[in-house]
Amino acid sequence: MGFASPRQCLLDAVEDTNWKCPNCSSTLxxxxxxxxxxxxxxxxxxxGVLAGHDILPLLVEDTYLRSHPEERRCHAFLEFCRExxxxxxxxxxxxxxxxxxxxxxxxxDILRYQDPLGSMSSGLHIAVEAKQSQVxxxxxxxxxxxxxxQFPPEVHRAADILGVAxxxxxxxxxxxxxxxxxxxxxxxxxxxxxxxxxxxxxxGRLAG
Length: 208
Hints:
Blueprint: H1 6-13, E1 30-31, E2 37-38, E3 40-45, E4 48-54, H2 56-67, H3 72-83, H4 86-94, H5 107-111, H6 123-129, H7 133-143, H8 153-162, H9 186-193, H10 197-203
Antiparallel strand pairs: 1-2, 3-4
Helix pairs in contact: 3-4, 3-6, 6-7, 6-9
């Protein structure tokens, strides 16, 4: 018989998002100096001790995905966008066979998914914020109407190697037009960041 992880035990004990102790009903969270809700704890593992670590974002995500299991692959895809792992992104897009019926399996759902826990950011928003240009190229190739001639040859070669290609975009939303919870497109996010995005902005690559 296996044992549940401490995180799973906490999730099972705290059944709502008020984050109260199931035994004494004390509130587990506190406010940071900026007014943000947090749940600080000390984590002890083989790497040592991590003191005062806020685990609330992780618990909120886990709680949400337990209620919405069909969005797990989409969340994984966004995390790969953040990490710049285009190979893993391609694996998620190709891995649409043998999944449970309650798991989203269409490329359209995954490519244009907007994170309700992350200010409704799309993969392109995340790529821009994380300065992941390879991810941005891949997303524009697969989920935008950007002229194919604007893509460097290495982007096309990478797509061939990864086994992904642009499908007919008729009737599909151009990922560049998606707006986050504050009404910003990825292009608008890129303006204050500058740097690697300056050329993209000058060439209108992020303009939907």
